[in-house]
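fyi for ur records
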Amino acid sequence: MEYEAVIGLETHVQLKTKSKMWCGCANQYGAEPNTNVCPVCLGLPGVLPVPNEEALRLTVLTGLLLNCELPRFAKFDRKSYFYPDMPKNYQITQYDRPSTANGFVEFELNNGLSRVRITRAHLEEDVGKSTHFERHSGLDFNRAGVPLMEIVSEPDITDSDMAYEYLNALKEILIYGGVSDCDMEKGMVRCDVNVSVRPVGTTELGAKIEIKNMNSFSGVRRALDYEIPRQIDVVKRGGQLIQSTRRWDDLAGITEEMRTKEHAHDYRYFPDPDLMPLAPTDEWLAAVKARVVELPLARKQRFMREYQLPAPDAETFKHDVPLGNYFEGLARQAKNPKAVANWVINNLRAKLSESSNRREEALTSSDDAHHESQSLLASAFTNLTLADLKFKPEGLLELVSLVEAGTISSAAAQQVFAEMFATGKSPSTIVQEKGMAQVSDTAAIEKFCDEAIAANPGPAHDFKSGKAAALNFLKGQVMKLSKGKANPALIGETLERKLKA
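which gave:
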């Protein structure tokens, strides 16, 4: 009997707010332990929570980005459990009346489109951080009370690759929307994986196994690649899977059982008596809807459709939003958007990266004994951005036009671009000052070709004898005679005509 996996994901995302969910403490990563805390964070008696309105807005914005319904009534609940990193002994969350519900995420998978339904995206609070040492443990409550959104998918995911692509698509959407920075190294995104197996062709779900607190998308993929075959092996050998919670040991490459799974009634959910229900007005929702942005996949598809870009180019502009915006500003005026994309991706982006790399090298090239000279060297290079470019964007359009008109060769265009980047001069000015205009005069090229053929009878005879590669040698000789200014296309046409006559 063949078995298939059924996977659902619970993704926890820290929201991009300046303060915490229920108080004015800073939502700040990297502060000294237990310095961004107050009586509310620490759950001291007599304190009252006050909702962070920006967190409420970001949650509803996420619902819009994920094609969710927006209920006109939502509420907060207390989820009771006892653990050292939860100072109140309960977590404020949303249980049966969340802020958003019933959406979906579309993403690319195996050269097609896949869709995973979203059950809900609800708002809650993060917990503190435990650090375990050899003989004791430490608790840092700086993270306690940070706005945390839980995005729950339906069990629509079928394998590890699909899970990986879904998570990346979700991350891109949240970053695009300004909902979260999604910095996984700072713990801003964590994931719980729910996975079961069942015979192919059946609809009943198997026992759900939860893998807790995954902190990398690649880890999710590796954990599923281990856990799915493990479960299939158990049932094929006649064993029984029970609902439980496991942890992923990335070093050993295995999952290990932690405990049997709790059920909802174990948490004793009840409405938080200190917080009013949420009933957003039309005006409030309209203000949030105004913050909706074009989604990453839609942007890629539009660039391919409107500017006839190949998928790799559109993918580049999907990932690098400022670069894509720069390109689009030019593409709307360009006769050949693909040529503009080539220059933006292959030349402009490379130059910007080069400036950043040179600055990094300067910063790391000297030891501490030469700190002053190191600083002076580093100051010579700037971490350039598009806003720092010396030439106007229209200069790139002009450069493309000069190449397409045959005024300069592709090789000369590279030199012109380097000069533009360094000085900010227009392409036409550079071409005129340096005498780089391409020779397209037919009579002049005829003369150069005659001289090259006369000086190189061997390659000329080889070409006439059927060795097509010999023509490239003769083209090179013509370019030398013209000092690199002859039009390569006219050179090829003229040589072929003369040698075939």
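The chain has three domains: 3-275, 296-434, 442-500. thats all i got for now
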